[in-house]
Amino acid sequence: MASVQSSIRIEISHGAFPAPKGAEAFVAYAIASSKGLIPEMEDAARQTLDQPMTFETLGENLRLFEGWALRDLADFRKRCRNNLVMCLDSFFGVHEGPSSIWVGCREAMQSSYQNRVLPKWLNQVLSQCRNDLNVQKYTDPLDIHSRIRGEYSTALQSHWNCNFCMLVHIKNGSTFCAELEDKLRQAREKVTCSLSFSCTTRFTSRRYAAIPTLTLV
Predict the structure, then answer these.
(1) Do residue 104 and residue 45 come from a single domain?
(2) Judging by beta carbons within 10 Å of its beta carbon (0-12, 13-18, 19+), is residue 171 exposed, middle or buried?
């Protein structure tokens, strides 16, 4: 097995196997899992997060998944989703942190008894993204970091008549969006594919065979 892994990695380093794109990441994950290529398996698992994990996407490639590989990938995806939700929760803080720069919107202060609240438009953006993650199935893409800036811009345009928010946007809007995108990206990266080896027994018509299976925990 070690020699097989080594030969595959040499071929990859020589460019024989280009980086998978789109749904090809699922194929790369399944193959890396079956061959025990742990670093490549983890990299491919992350690349699948931007794609829907459905039977339509997997198609005939579903047969490439051995043992618990498909279930383990789904579990990894769920944990990434949970981490993204926690990341968004941190942006609701108004006393400190990146969102504190938005405190002072007159419309928000007039509609609340509290002195420090987020502008309604920003609160709605963060809430909608968080709610979408909470209710969506693990089969949906986890690409919120690549969409959040567009949703921020659309929401801000509906609030164009607020001098305070426009001024904050001009001064710090780009930095705020970059930090939001970066934090969400990091939230996905922090979820590791910790691996443990277990033995799964498969039955064939001729014999029982103990086959090592990689399990994500």
Answers:
(1) no
(2) exposed
